[in-house]
Design brief:
Strand content: 15-25%
Strand order of the largest sheet: 3-2-1-4
CATH architecture: 3-Layer(aba) Sandwich
Radius of gyration: 12 Å
CATH topology: Rossmann fold
Structural class: alpha/beta
Number of helices: 4
Length: 92
């Protein structure tokens, strides 16, 4: 399962660590609007980065999207991901 992560703040970094502990699950991309957090994700994880959750979702690189962005973005990003065909995480 390929995972995309929207948001690389404290919660996003925690989720990135947890994803790496599961066999068969690979973090493939991180999105964040802050350039310094994208650079940190690239350095820490070696994954593709996107400047918005929408761009990550639209790229179609992930099977599952974890939304770790600010709360007011949860619904629009989740709806966009589901409409794009992303699976609903069984952990959500």
């Amino acid at each position: 399962m390929k995972v995309g992560l929207c948001g690389y703040g404290n919660m996003g970094r925690m989720h990135a660590q947890l994803v790496g502990k599961h066999d068969g699950i690979t973090l493939v991309a991180v999105a964040d609007v802050q350039e310094e957090l994208r650079a940190r994700a690239s350095k820490d994880l070696g994954v593709a980065t996107y400047d918005s959750g929408e761009a990550l979702i639209d790229a179609g690189v992930a099977d599952v999207i974890f939304v770790c962005a600010p709360t007011y973005l949860h619904a629009p990003l989740s709806i966009r991901a589901l409409n794009a065909g992303a699976q609903r995480s069984r952990w959500a």
